[in-house]
Amino acid sequence: MGADARRPLIHFTPPSGWLNDPNGLVFAKGLYHLFYQHNPHSTSWGPMHWGHATSDDLISWTHRPIALAPDKHGLIFSGSAVIDSEDSAGFGSNTLVALFTYHALSGDSPECQGLAWSRDQGEEFTKLDAPILEAPPGITDFRDPTVFWFDGASSSKHISPSGNSPAGSHWIMLLAAGQAVEVYTSSDLRNWAHASTLRDAFADSGTWEMPELIRFEADDDVRWVLAVSLTEGAPHSGSGVQAVVGDFDGSVFVPTDPTFWVDFGPDYYAPQAWNSAPGGRRVWAGWAGNWRDVSPDPNAQWCGQMSIPRELSLIRTGGGLRLKQEPVAELTRYYMDSLVLAGAEISATIGVPLALKAPALDFDLELDSELSSEDAVIIEFRRADKAATLQLDLDRDEIVLTLDSNQIDRPTSPAAYRAPLGLTDGAGESIRVLLDTASIEVFAGASVITVKTPALADPWSVVIESLPSVGSTATLTLNSIGSPR
Ligand code: FRU
Fold it and tell me: pTM above 0.70?
């Protein structure tokens, strides 16, 4: 079994070396750009570069030359890219401008922000000689700029949190600083003015990293979601992502709903949304990893993968407004064989592997009827001699993913991951599971569970272990996914 056969089919991995956060996600001239934290020299974290890949459908990626390499100011940590369509920065209209953190290996304030621009869609960058924003004195964590254009004309109808009215249009930069998010504004991407500081919205565990602020239209108004990655304290320990819905007026963000965890598995971190995505679509992807578990597979040339890009929307749950995340629809282009079962046909398969196996599968079970808490829904995903079991715990309104210890191969992790379903009564249940050579992603109710697994080329098979009688409109759809490579 060669290393290539174990590479994820539908999850981005670096050509060789190490990958962590997605960086500089931007859509331009028909292509989605994916820059990423990259050490090209080794499968362990090290001197950070920005790797680069492009895609026209978010699934099939073409590797591009490395975009940014460390220099005298330090390593190139995470950041954003924007298309400066009106030439606000003076590099020419439609220039791709990257803003990133320089991380120096010594000094009292090791982090500051740098800027680089590209006139050829990210093939070659020119860096500004000097950093554009230094850390305030004594601040050691000051990183991960998320940058986007704020259009004052389309802000929310709510009362402006800062009392400013009307909000102007300008560039926004959010930075993570310890356990705070700092908001800056600019008219030219080079000179930045401090606008506000947000504390308290997220857990006081670890260091906050990779802030992300995304605009939504919901309930006939504009709502914003602020997400932050935390190095510690996630539901199953280690690093994870929290988010909260609120109002934003171009300078101040004020939460309006309860804070929630974005993913209940151990391996979703540092998500970023694509700037200027077509049709205003909101799509993000995260590093399918956890800072607590970064040891490379000694037999692989690569370490680190992205989550599947996820289309975002807002849904109302018992716990307030939440993000709903779904794999992007472009994935269906890579379906190969499919199996569709309806009603009693599904129950007839109980205990027997479904007649479709492949190294990458997209499993979808739509249950129409309202299940009662006595009903047991148990689905097993098997590969080689290993299994992952998914169970709906309707009594606790939870979904539980349990992994054989040899499947997860991670002695420090719990074997079971629980996530609230959070569904409104009578909504029916929908369970979607993406299986690839090195990950499992479960989408159920308002929750997601992302787990990376050891990379294996063996085909997955699916067994419905238990299911109450379902109505005639219940459907099970299983698609095998071919390699876009
Ligand atoms: C998040 C992070 C960022 C930093 C980068 C370094 O995973 O720690 O805060 O910019 O990774 O690789």
Answer: yes
